[in-house]
Amino acid sequence: MENQYIIKGGNPLHGEVVIGGAKNAALGILAAAIMTDETVTIDNLPNVRDINVLLTAIESIGATVKRLGPHEVQINGSTISDVTIDYDSIRKIRASYYLLGALLGKYKKAQVALPGGCDIGSRPIDQHLKGFRALGATVNIEYGMINTFADALMGNHIYLDVVSVGATINIMLASCMAQGRTVIENAAKEPHIVDVANFLNSMGANIKGAGTDKIRIDGVDRLHASEYSIIPDQIEAGTFMVAAAATKGDVLIRNVIPKHLEAISVKLIEIGAKVEEFDDAVRVSADDRLGHTQIKTLPYPGFPTDMQPQIATLLALSNGTSTVTESIFENRFKYVDELARMGANIKVEGNVAIIEGVTGLTGASITAPDLRAGAALVVAGLVADGFTTVDSIHFIERGYEDFDKKMTALGACMEKIPVDDERELQKFKMKVG
Ligand SMILES: CC(=O)N[C@H]1[C@@H](OP(=O)(O)OP(=O)(O)OC[C@H]2O[C@@H](n3ccc(=O)[nH]c3=O)[C@H](O)[C@@H]2O)O[C@H](CO)[C@@H](O)[C@@H]1O
Ligand SMILES: C=C(OP(=O)(O)O)C(=O)O
Predict the structure, then answer these.
(1) Which residue positions are annotated as catalytic (predicted)?
(2) Taking the model in full, what pTM does it have?
(3) Which of 211, 232, 297, 359 is the most exposed place for a label (fewest CB within 10 A)?
């Protein structure tokens, strides 16, 4: 059954919210977990759709997956009997490609369907495949499947032509049990790269330099058991930071690494929001309408593309003209038409959104085009005058755990109801007046 969010805008968010584990780190870590035959325990796992899809795919090849609770899982890869992941089991997610690197690294062969994920651009994986080939693997693409195999994997020097999160993690996975040294140059530096490297090292891998643009991996013979807790989700935290500012609220966002949020904090401060940093929390508040700025998405430590729709939504409500340049993905402005239906004034020219701030939005029936754009539209609904319904929330549920419940606990007026259920819609409207 498909659900939608119904939102009555106008309530400032107040209180505390606890951020979950990082989805994009967890996806790499779960794939890495199958590379040992010993049992691995992973904690602070976000309970979101992408993670559950990946866990099901991992089970489908025979690995033993034991849920110890909503945020903890035990994986044992000794029971794996197959190295083929078909399209049906992973078409909804992008990070299925990490199973290629993990299976190739462990068994020297893998067959994985070409990845899905959000439609935010053409999203080639040539750099992943270039990395596998450099390690000595043969790679063919046939009938929608990527087949890769090798007699032996040998370390090599790999220069990435583009800074790619996925290729960096995949090459770390494939090379950590290769013979000799692999060096990845022009590597991505995102916090989740460091987290996957730390997890692999906790299993006995020898990876140095993660978090810089040069990562050195000395191959080891085997990986062993580990217990590991995933870092907090930078993007979930950033989304609540923006929601607090957009609703002119005051929210303490707990279980975060403030350093990972700096690019977001700096921009919020620049436009007039108040951001206070604590050891593992940030507090964001705003009293007045905020100001304008220029933002360009860049690889870490630049402004994250996964926060682009949310910050653009905030700027759509701010004073003056802002520009948001999307430099990573060519198709990440699909939410602009939906925001326009709520009264925003945004013009897209190439990869630049020119935003003329408006004083308010009005509720409308809108559809989430992808994960982060969906979250941004919810933020718009929280601010808008009147009622907003957001459809296609399965996108949002790919990456946000209990998004509606966390927002409601902060004072938002929103609920998840079945799509086209007029009775539930009226019930909500009666309840909130
Ligand atoms: C599951 C996951 O972690 N997803 C994140 C990951 O996606 P993903 O790993 O797919 O993104 P990449 O960092 O690889 O992509 C960055 C850029 O490189 C290009 N590229 C990438 C690989 C390749 O082989 N060839 C190539 O040309 C892409 O088209 C894009 O323009 O990082 C993105 C950038 O921070 C985030 O928006 C996604 O949320
Ligand atoms: C775009 C994202 O995910 P994916 O790369 O899995 O589509 C995201 O997490 O914002």
Answers:
(1) 118
(2) 0.98
(3) 359
